[in-house]
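PROTEIN DESIGN WORKSHEET
SECTION A - STRUCTURE
LENGTH: 290
TOKENS:
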């Protein structure tokens, strides 16, 4: 009897092992089939990842409005504007809104311009190469003048006391025929307003002709005029190229300083006497300034 039970137990063990082996084989076969599926076989569709949902910014507004995270976070939701886009959208400062208040001219690092932005009511100091507010880059600084580059062109900024440079100093003397009229025999009549307008800028007046020393017996006797500008001071009083200026109101013109001084003293005078040499002959001109 015990022998029969042993045989039955052995058979049951063999059957159980066979069943377990079959189950393991099926599982292994299923796993291998999924891994080694041929290309022509039916593919199993993979689940498509759902794109994350993008909500409008207003969708989250109630979270802050209702204070979901506490009263400290309660408030209104405000969109953040792109700083670059905002800067591009902001209007640029026009050069006419800038006012030059002062300059300091020295070396490159010691040259500055004090500029006021009238629109922003703001004053700042800029060095050469700096961007003047957002109008243009500072490229040149002079006494009472500064220049910035706007759109590839130099634009001048003026101080409140500096007149516009569009009108040249000699503009009032443009009509020489009207400013000076001949009375005959070396006598002339000069328009006083036109003469004073030219003399307001004596340095510019001295560039209205080229004056070179004229020597006689080794000494300077006067100055020879050349390159006389048609609308300048010298042309106004009748001086021509080649004339040698000797005396003005009996004051000798034998040095550049005396020449400049004598012409400056013309302002406010009512009469003028000019001694010169023209074509080798001494000539005297008399002017009545009215």
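SECTION B - SEQUENCE
RESIDUE ASSIGNMENT:
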């Amino acid at each position: 009897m015990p022998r029969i039970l042993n045989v039955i137990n052995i058979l049951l063990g063999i059957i159980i092992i066979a069943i377990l082996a079959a189950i393991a084989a099926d599982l292994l076969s299923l796993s291998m089939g999924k891994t080694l599926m041929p290309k022509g076989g039916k593919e199993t569709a993979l689940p498509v990842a759902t794109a994350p949902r993008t909500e409008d910014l207003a969708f989250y507004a109630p979270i802050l409005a209702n204070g979901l995270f506490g009263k400290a976070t309660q408030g209104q939701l405000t969109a953040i504007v792109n700083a670059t886009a905002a800067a591009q959208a902001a209007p640029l400062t026009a050069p006419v809104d800038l006012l030059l208040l002062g300059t300091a001219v020295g070396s490159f690092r010691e040259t500055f311009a004090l500029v006021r932005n009238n629109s922003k009511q703001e004053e700042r100091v800029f060095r050469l190469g700096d961007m003047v507010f957002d109008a243009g880059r500072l490229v040149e600084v002079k006494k009472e003048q500064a220049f910035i580059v706007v759109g590839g062109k130099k634009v001048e900024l003026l101080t409140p006391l500096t007149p516009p440079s569009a009108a040249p100093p000699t503009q009032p003397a443009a009509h020489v025929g009207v400013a000076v009229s001949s009375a005959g025999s070396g006598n002339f009549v000069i328009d006083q307003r036109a003469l004073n307008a030219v003399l307001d800028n004596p340095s510019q007046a001295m560039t209205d002709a080229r004056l070179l020393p004229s020597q006689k017996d080794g000494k300077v006797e006067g100055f020879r005029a050349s390159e006389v500008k048609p609308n300048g001071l010298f042309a106004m009083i009748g001086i021509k190229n080649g004339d040698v200026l000797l005396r003005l109101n009996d004051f000798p013109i034998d040095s550049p300083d005396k020449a400049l001084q004598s012409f400056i003293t013309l302002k406010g005078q009512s009469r003028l006497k000019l001694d010169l040499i023209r074509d080798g002959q001494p000539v005297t001109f008399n002017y009545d300034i009215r």
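SECTION C - NOTES
Helices lie at 2-35, 61-65, 83-89, 176-179, 192-199, 202-205, 233-236, 256-264.
Residues 83-87, 164-178 have pLDDT under 50 and may be disordered.
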